[in-house]
Each structure stands twice: as C-alpha cells, then as structure tokens.
Amino acid sequence: MKTFRFKTYLTSNVESLESINKELLNKCKQQQFKKGDYLLREGEISKTSYFVEDGLLRQFSVDDKGKEHVIQFAPENWFMANREGECFNLPSSYNIEAIEDTTVFIIEKELIENLSKTNSVFLNFNIELLHKHIASLQKRITQLQSKTAKERYLDFIKTYPDVLMRVPQTYVASYLGITPESLSRVRKEISINK
Amino acid sequence: MKTFRFKTYLTSNVESLESINKELLNKCKQQQFKKGDYLLREGEISKTSYFVEDGLLRQFSVDDKGKEHVIQFAPENWFMANREGECFNLPSSYNIEAIEDTTVFIIEKELIENLSKTNSVFLNFNIELLHKHIASLQKRITQLQSKTAKERYLDFIKTYPDVLMRVPQTYVASYLGITPESLSRVRKEISINK
DNA sequence: ATAATTTCTTAACATACATCAATGTGTTTC
DNA sequence: GAAACACATTGATGTATGTTAAGAAATTAT
Question: What is the CATH superfamily name and number for domain B5-116?
C-alpha cells in the first residue's frame, strides 16, 4: 500500500496512537481537485477540514470592489479549514481554491469531535494546532501593522520558500497586502542590492 | 455572595454545567492589578489565561525600533491569553498590561486541560473560543490588507465602541496600524463630514 | 509552432500615510 | 494654583505604495 503523507504526518505528530491513526486514515476520504477548482465557495456551509496530501491550496476573500485577498496558502502536509463556519455552521466568508492539481483528505468535523472526546492525546494535538494557527495569525497582524512591503516579502521568502516558487506573484502580493506592481518593484530592488 | 461577571459569563455560556462552573470559580483565583501594571512581560513563560472581571487589558509587542504594536484589547467578560506560550511553554512574544485598574480571574492551563478531558461540553466551549479567536484575527488581517485607515477606524468604532472611550488614542492608532497623528487626522475628517 | 491569454515588469503620476516639529489641551503632582 | 507631564492636534514635508497604462514575458490553447 502506498504511504500517504497524511499517514506519515499522523504517525510523527500524534504519537503512540496506532488505533486513532488507523481510524483517521480509514474514515477520511481522499478527493482530487484540478488546478482552478474550488473546494469551498463564499456563502457555502462546510463541516469539513482538509489535509493537503499533494498540491497547493489558497484561502481568500473577495471584497466589495471585487478584489481578492489571500488569507493563507496550504501546501502538502498542511491543514486547511474554514474555522468559523465549521464551528458554528455559518456560511463561509472565504473561498478555498486549488492552485495546483491537489489531493486532499477530507476530515469531517464530527470525526474530530468524537476522537477528541475519546482520546486526550488527539485532543491536545488538535488544540495545539489551533494555538499554532493563532500564533501565526498574530505574527502576521504585527507584520502588517509595522513592517514595510519589502520586509514582509523578505520574511515570506524565508518562511515559505517552497510556496513562493509555486504560486503566481499576484497571489503572493495579495497575501502581503500589496499590489502586484508593488511586489514587482520590491523584487527588483532586492535583486539589485544582491 | 457577590455575583461575579465570571460566574454570569460561565452560566450563560457553558450551559448545564453547574459542577464545572463551581470548580472553575473555586479554583480560579482573583488578582487585582493597578493601571500600568504588567500581567506578563515579553520573554516570560506563562501557563495561565485571564478572564477580565473588571477593567481593561492590552496585549502588545515591541519591535526592534522600540515601537509598540497593540494586538488586542480585553475589557470585562473577555479572555486574554498568551496562546503560543501557554501551549508550548515558550517565552511570550507579547506584553500584557492593565490600561485601567483591573481584576482578573487566573485560569491555569492545567485546569482547562483537566476539565476538557472530563467534560465534553466544556471542551467544545473551549474549542469554540479558539475558533472565534481565529475568525476575528483573520478578519483583522483582511482589513489590514485592504482597507484604508479611515475604514479600519470606522469599523473599530462600530465593533468596540466601549473600548474606544476608555483607551488612549495612541493605543487605538497602534491597534489600527497607523500613527497617532494619522488617527487624529482621520478623526478630524470624520467629524467634519458629519 | 502560432496565436491567444494571462502574468509580470516598467514608467509616470496620484495619494495615503509617516515623519518631524510646533502648539494646544487636559491631568497629575507638589 | 502653578508647574510638569502626558496626550492630542495641526502643519509642512517626505516616502511608500496605489493607480493607470503600456509593453515584455510566460503560459496555455489551437
């Protein structure tokens, strides 16, 4: 049997949980998406999270002027979830789109709840994920508050060098909160100073 | 016995959990802080969360140039926690300071973990809190990415009208990611157009 | 391969916001 | 009540980033 990233991830993170891992692998269905496909559209209600087995996703919102704002990228081994909607059965404010052909494992909210109740190691793992997520969002807020576009871009390169190479610059610009033109200028400036 | 906000909050949010609520009230100690006191300093390791019984806190970071950046305010009935540190025993990247004389209930990490294990309603409540937190941070990121200072300020007024009145404008400016001077101009412009 | 479409770069110009410096207003302290 | 201090406003100026528009490069489709 093929070894999935999902399995590797689980065995290296949710330790000594052979039974849980098996249950997760068995109950989470795989699904494939083509580049450009939407996994979730704004307004839809979703009760699932995704584990990216292969490929690359982006989560983004669209403002009143029709402009897109990328909240997050998710390459292999990352989770992608519509947190608020999943938790409160609210229509999603965000879209999730496959930037590359992508294979995901679909994790039902109910499954997570059940496993959390029956197993405290899994529970802690799950809560840790949420905490890490919060920490990274806070870091981004601080950056948007105080750093220049150039500084934010340099940090992005450092933190997600792999993502950088696989994503259209427009999306990176959107993630950084600047226009593609500004990103282009920033990149030029950096290449000159090297 | 005095009715605490904390008790009211618990009974209205963590329903049908008489026993849990009692345990929380009994095991969480109260502590008082004077205006200007620090509850947590950058670099310290903390394993506690706070429920603000009375008063007002701010959480902020200090950048390499010595500038402060407000991540969050917490008035009565709010929780304040150093998420990443609490979860992973890491030194805090943030400071927590009392903006007014403030009374908090101190909630030990261990207590939350124990209650989560033994009671699934409490567990869900706790996870919902984390989800809500994530949703609000994502909203802020989208705003910082795409809205003008004026738009962000108007949204702040609408969302936290009470906080606005109790906090020095410098802190509001910092929260919005602009200088106090810019905030002053934004306010002037708004007052003229009314 | 060629054409068509999308993405990226570059330039000129506009604008929002930062910076610096001065003045004004209110609050605390003695 | 005066002095000292922190906070808010205002003005002049600078800079980073946005906007618009054009062309170059890359990708996709025919």
Answer: Jelly Rolls (2.60.120.10)
In angstroms, the CA B92 to CA B109 distance is: 15
Report helix, strand or coil for A158: helix
Domain boundaries, chain A: 5-146
Instruction: Say which of A67, A123, A174 has its CB closest to residue B116.
Output: A123
SS3 of A89, please?
Answer: coil
Query: Is nucleic acid strand D under 7 Å from B35's C-beta?
Result: no
Residues of chain A contacting residue B49, judged by C-beta atoms under 8 Å apart:
none
* CATH classification for the domain delimited by A5-146, as one of 2.60.40.1180, 3.30.365.10, 2.60.120.10, 3.30.70.3040: 2.60.120.10
Percent of chain B past pLDDT 70, that is, above it, reads 93
* Per-residue pLDDT tens digits for B104-142: 999 998 898 888 888 888 888 888 889 999 999 999 999
- What residues pair up with B73 in beta bridges, in sequence order? B58
Which of chain B's residues have a Cβ under 8 Å away from the Cβ of A177?
144-146
